[in-house]
Amino acid sequence: MLVIGYGNSIRGDDGVGVAAAEQLNETLLQNSPVRVLACQQLTPELASEISKAGRVIIIDAAKGETPGQITVNKIEPNNNSSAFTHELTPSALLACAQELYGKHPATFLVSVIGYSFDFSDELSPTLKQIMPEVLARVRELIDQQEE
Amino acid sequence: MRTIEIKPVTRIEGHAKITIELDEEGNVHDAHFHITQFRGFEKFCEGRPFYEMPSLMARICGICTISHMLASAKACETLMAVRVPETAIYLRRIANLAQMIQSHALSFFYLAAPDLLLGMDADPAKRNIYGLMKTNPEFVRDGVRLRQFGQEIIELLAGKRLHPTWIVPGGVTSPLSAGIRDRILTSLPEAFGIIQRTLNWYKTVVDNYREEIRTFATFPSLFMGLVTPAGELEHYHGRLRVVDPTGTVVEDQIDPTSYANYIGETVLPYSYLKAPYYKSRGYPEGIYRVGPLARLNIIDRTGTPRAEEEWVEYRALRRQANLSNFHNHYARLIEILYAIERIEQLLNNPEITSSHVRAHASPNNNEGIGVTEAPRGTLIHHYKINDDGLITWANLIVATGHNNLAMNHGVLQVAKHFIRGNHIQEGVLNRVEAVIRTFDPCLSCSTHALGQMPLDISLMDCQGRVLDRLKRD
Hints:
Chain A is an alpha/beta fold. In chain A, 35% of the residues lie in helices and 22% in strands. Chain A has a single domain, classed as Rossmann fold (3-Layer(aba) Sandwich). Chain A has a 5-stranded mixed β-sheet with strand order 2-1-3-5-4. In chain A, α1 (16-27) links the parallel β1 (2-6) and β2 (35-39). By secondary structure, chain B is of the alpha+beta class. Chain B has 2 domains: 2-37 and 410-471, no CATH class; 41-164 and 181-353 and 363-409, Orthogonal Bundle (Cytochrome-c3 Hydrogenase, chain B), CATH 1.10.645.10. In chain B, the strands form 6 sheets. Chain B has a 4-stranded mixed β-sheet with strand order 8-7-6-11. Chain B has a 3-stranded antiparallel β-sheet with strand order 1-2-3, with helices on one face. Chain B has a 3-stranded antiparallel β-sheet with strand order 12-13-14. The radius of gyration of chain B is 22 Å and the shape is globular. Chain B starts with a strand and ends with a strand.
């Protein structure tokens, strides 16, 4: 099981994925089969990590009209990234894993709608308040795997 | 008169555009490489405590973080007049070399290889790393693995891959354990295998790019970089050496802290990027280049056995200094091999696990300069502080800045060669971009000139008179 939280932690709520990953990591037992990565963006190198996992959970911030809303969706490979950068979308990362390593595990995207993406190294009060629920949803997905 | 704009320039680090000016017959008259982003690090660090500088300056770039931290820490150590423990220097060297591996791998495998493997005229929608995954997955896997290899070493040493706080004025914050040393040593054979395989392949195909080699920023210029006292490759300490297009040493063993005696800086009206030049030749004749091509041009030998063999073969391409920027690709591969060898040597030093990795001191000087070789070339950090240790002035000259005049010259050369009349193929425009990519410019690092507004579009006649100008407010 691999959990990836990503985003820019100095742009306020954009860092919710990183914050969730770090908090989750602190609660895991030392011999936990769950591996947690926190990163600023998705890069092709992560395709290798993903291809070795049985299941993947990706946590990211999203824009929307209802800050704090959490959605969980199963995602499929889709190479929709810009050719201009070395940053990937979650679906494009799965496509890379499929192209390069011949497989992609079942992957769930946990999206959390942010309130503020201004310069700040803290989450907004809205997202701080919702963080236990974000972690609970991630743990549910982890437990589904263990069952 | 017609102006062609390429915006944005793709597969580089940052944001830029190129304008090409045609005369009435449709022939290329002039061309410019515009840096259209602005950062301002030199100004907003003023007032900060000097010891914050390595972590603050690391934020300039997500690719060459370690180089900025090192140049910054070295400048701070001059302020402190402190002697850094030898083991800390060894560990810093390993981190810097690991960063060079991951950066060169990114440049070669992710950014340049689509042109090399799929062709300059291939469909632009497929001429990228994703296109390569379909046609050459093994090649991309090698690139991914090599980049991971460099990133993992940085993470193992410094705690995290991006913006670690491990390098501090006076040394590093934690020593290397024997377990981590052994883990890195175990991963070296795979890295050696990948780079040797890639070099062997590249040497079989390099002749396919004769036209690009002949026209991609292939012009006489000076070359500059750090060398050891024995004239070998050096990426951490060392002294500056300048060679001319014939390979003759113009200036040698320059104390890097006296850089201002040798390098002048001017501002171009169309770019946020400053334009340094070699002072004794004046502007613009003092055009020089830094980076992998320059480093392999200025040395007498590499200093490691396997890279030395490759370098001797590479130098056989041209007895004098290698003038084609296209050969930066080849030079990067040789430097990756060198870096893996040097990392192995450093890890096998018995002192590498010493716990003495940091010295402490208060500021003892009001001015400090730190110089290293970043992946893209020579990196200079220069600070002044007041008696309270607060930064009052900072000047940075980064690799992409050193190469600014050469990049403009290269764009003009390739545009003149490939563009004829009014009919312009996409592949031709890609070649104009590709010449910039050979420099692997990092625009995030290099844009901190103040007071000049960039032009979005400039229209000029053959005498250089501005006919029209569209300018941002």
